[in-house]
Amino acid sequence: MSQLKVPLLDLKAQFAAIEQEVWPALERVVRSQQFILGDEVAAFEREVAEYCGTQEAVGCASGTDALLLSLVACGTEPGDEVITSPYTFFATAGSIVRAGARPVFVDIEPDSYNLNLDAVAAAITAKTRAIIPVHLFGRPVEIGPLLDLAARHGIDIIEDACQAIGAEWHGKRAGSFGTAGCFSFFPSKNLGAFGDGGAVTTSDVDLAKRLRALRVHGMERRYHHRWIGWNSRLDAIQAAVLRVKLRHLDRWSEARRRNAQQYRELFHEHGLTDLVRLPDPGPAHVRHVFNQFVIRVPAEHRDPLRKHLRNHGVGTEVYYPVPLHLQEALAFLGYREGAFPEAERAARETIALPVYPELTRDQQAYVVQTIADYFGRR
Fold it and tell me: What does the domain layout of the chain look like in residue ranges?
């Protein structure tokens, strides 16, 4: 088989398909000379709130700031504890620390990579202020039992939906379940800006009011500061791009889901499922949107397989090679290796393959054949 180039993500292909829509949107902002907040951001906020099924959405500078704004707006204080996953991007825990609270990690489920709900229940204490479930890789958490648990204890659910816009649980979309939902529009996300950007969704009107003030230094009206906030605004140019892309998001998500299914078929055709563990799309009531397509292989094969794929033109990534409880910056929490075995095992065994919407079946066939060649299968 001749060598193909299969990047992990191809944003140029995406742009080529929507270029004629994007340029007028950018020109609209440039001609208005209104670059900070304003009508473009307000319009995007309305549209993304409607998409997610919430009353409000508040644009901000990044997904990281969406988490931090939500924690602060919910009243998180020094001494509070926030339960979350050790197997996620660092921002989830970093935002908790920046809000003055202490991250309390619990292990993940090996199939979904999402929080183990029994472990969450066991970790709740009188200091627990919130739970941050992470809808990792685009698969939503089994949120119903978690909402019931939080309601019994009077604590907030702040959804880390940064990888999961459009994901659904029983027909409701990620970001609409908890007190707040946090989204990232980093370019690699399913809904990606032309730079950094984020948003918080909520149906709590008072919370949305606080969020809007906190993103402009706690200012409710000009030069009158009710809270200590910071500068975390979504640029109008980013909002304009996101408004264009939002119209295509469901089509792109379905293409990702189709690609995931085609991968499953190809791996089965090559007889690789005894060596390669495929991502579980979840039960019928879950809509997984595959921000990543993450396979697992025995740990001793993970890095050699990545090298083999790289040498044959296939892009891959490892999310995340060091779980958060073992990160140097969080050593003060006192966790040790072995504390969360499922998270640690995932960190050793996982590889993300290309799954972007424009990926062709021929490219997917090449990726799987290259993996088959590594394992000596035909």
Answer: 12-246, 249-374
Q: What is the distance between the alpha carbons of residues 205 and 210, in angstroms, rounded to a whole number? A: 9
Whole-number pLDDT of residue 2: 74
**Which CATH class for the 12-246 domain?**
alpha beta
In this structure, what are the phi and psi dihedrals at residue 215, rounded to the nearest 5 degrees? -75, -10
Core vs surface per residue 218-234: b (16+ CB within 10 A) or e:
bbeeeeeeeeebeebbb
- CA dist 179 and 157 (Å) reads 6
**How far is 88 from 93, CA to CA, in rounded Å?**
9
Domain 249-374 has CATH 3.40.50.620: no
Q: Of 281, 222, 208, 194, nearest to 59 (Cα)?
A: 208
- Give the contacts of 10 (CB within 8 A, at least 6 positions apart): 354, 356, 358, 359
- CATH topology of 12-246 equal to that of 249-374? no
- 84-95 tens-digit pLDDT: 999 999 999 999
- SS3 for 288? coil
Query: Shortest CA distance to 185 belongs to which of 177, 172, 194?
Result: 194
The structure's pTM equals 0.96
CA distances from 272 to 3, 33, 165, 352, 370 (A): 21, 55, 31, 16, 12
Helices first, then strands: H and E counts in the chain: 12, 14
Q: What are phi and psi of 184, to 5 degrees?
A: -110, 140
- Give Dmax over CA atoms of the chain in angstroms: 69
- Nearest by Cα to 324 from 169, 142, 35, 96: 96
| pLDDT single digits (tens) 210-222 | 999 999 999 998 9
Report whether the peptide linkage leading into residue 51 is cis, meaning its omega lies within 30 degrees of zero: no
Query: Residue 17: pLDDT above 80?
Result: yes
Beta strands 168-169; 350-353: pairing state: unpaired
Beta carbons of 214 and 202 less than 8 angstroms apart: no
